[in-house]
Amino acid sequence: MKYTNEQLKLAANTVRCLCADMVEKAKSGHPGAPMGLADLAVSLWLNYLDFDPKDTQWEGRDRFVLSGGHGSTLAYALFHLAGVKGAEMDQCQTFRQLGSRCAGHPERGVMPGVEVTTGPLGQGIAMGIGLALAAKMAGRTNRTWIFCGDGDMEEGISHEACSFAANLALDRLVLVYDSNGITIEGSTALSMKDDAKKRFESYGWKVLTCDGHDYDQISKTYKKAMKIEGAPVLIIATTTIGLGAPNKKGTSGVHGAPLGEEELKATKAALGFNPEESFYVPQEVYDMFAARAAVCHRLRNRWVKAGAPAYGGTALAGELLKALPAFDPAKPVATRAACGTVMNALAKVYPSLVGGSADLEPSNKTALKEYGWIAAGDFTGRNIHFGIRELAMSAIVNGMTAYGSWRAFGATFFVFSDYCKPAMRLAALMKLPSIWVFSHDSFYVGEDGPTHEPVEQMAMLRAMPNVAVFRPADANETGYCWIEMLKNTEGPSCILTTRQNLPILEGTSAEGVAKGAYVVFGTDVNPELLFLASGSEVGICLEAAKQLAEAGRRVRVVSMPCWELFEKQPLSYRESVIPSTCRKRVIAEAGVSFGWERYAGDLSTTRYLTLDKYGESGPYKVLAQHFGFTAENVLAKAREIL
Ligand SMILES: Cc1ncc(C[n+]2csc(CCOP(=O)(O)OP(=O)(O)O)c2C)c(N)n1
Ligand SMILES: [Mg+2]
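Above: the input record for the complex with thiamine diphosphate. Below: its predicted structure, written as tokens.
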């Protein structure tokens, strides 16, 4: 379908007015970017983007990501014009209101057609790169189109992600840069002077430039971009923010505030629209989008009929359990090593599992050894070298997970979960089942010292809604935790593993881990003291508990590998594991106590073996003594309250 420039202009101006109307009615929002991007957007959507509004989940579709999520009305206007079910005019008219699918920023799962939630600038670029990588690895040929702005370019994650994409020569990926020279505080000159062309060329991208309001140039540039193979493409499009608003265009005033009644009327008049009419769409524009939708629907039907080979694949929980390795009960093993063994065993029955580490694979032990490493030109492997780029890795993992069937994971030291957190939060918000493997989970790291010894990170992750945090007590629990992570498709999961060896414990079980917390020692239904612990501290609690039991005390040890799973159990189960009548409790975890109050007894009957300060440098065995993480100390704490 070929449209005249006049037709494209009508469509773009319709988008401009629609976006400005949404923001005006909501009295809140960002009209500038959508108005500036309107020409680039309609050119793409009416001519090149393979997107079937009748089936927004069609796997072969091109992915469209609006990284500058503040320009959400642009996406909503496009979905509306394209005829996406769910993006009807009543939704546009309730933009930013409670319950509207036209939420403040584009939310995956809220508005059909939104591939990933965007708003935290920069992450959309990295998630888009994840979408493109996922497509490559699945052997698909669809494209990924990302629109981004100055803010996305300023954010550091854009460097991490774009450097990564270039190294993989990731093509069929087009990043359109809305270079309008304006951010909230004013001109971009206030905060940057880098040369995007040189910057991206130095990464290894192909860089094209165009006037973002000249349809001939835009079309030519898009066509050129679509022909480039062997490299990602950046299109630097020079634009005017808020184009169409006669007095406010080109200023930061149009970035994030309604145009105001007068300026909105002036805009409509200038664009040839009736100033008195709101939310108006000429039938001709609907028809243009409908024509493109029909083309895409035929593409989709052909694609579906041709039957693209499935990729990935999952296994049933029972098969996963059978696939788990057996660990020698006499041989202590670090849970990071056990994690590697488990992942390799599960990878064989769970072909969707793919991922990698941020340059710490030898420490994280996450390589899927029977499968290759992906590289430029060869995407058949299942392992990825993410490079030292934790934030981009995490967002790329989210993009890969959002693509479809992949269960992608990223790995690093637990302390660097701080660098992953912004993307973990988006995964949690999107309820995406991304996976993070965090080794070196406590001060037991030792000699690297406090910079490498996480203390507050468990509390941080547990504080995030929808994130399941797993901290296995030994090698067997590590396997059971992995099964639960793979079973959990309702949100992200992470697993925390040890650098140091841990004994293989008695009493662990898959059924117990599946419930988040369970009794590993003590048969008395009416215990006088509870040890509540996770990870490496379960073992020392067991040692102490055995001594007390030999002395005739009725004590119980509860392993709590996953609070979030435990909280989902019925009260009767939770009460059976942590009876409220038993007030005497010793809580043991190599991290801050913050959060454990919910499982504590009374102030006078609870003792904590936690680390409520930063760690120290030293051999880990010395540190364990120094911080009191010993069975003797656990025993002493129990005796204080018994
Ligand atoms: C990580 C992050 N930091 C800050 C913001 C707040 N914010 C939203 S838009 C914006 C300015 C973005 O400028 P640009 O990308 O040039 O958008 P334009 O003004 O051109 O629409 C900022 C700072 C954000 N959304 N995400
Ligand atoms: Mg800008």
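Notes for the reader.
The mean pLDDT is 98.
Residues 149-150, 180, 182-183, 241 surround magnesium ion (ligand 2) (CB under 6 Å).
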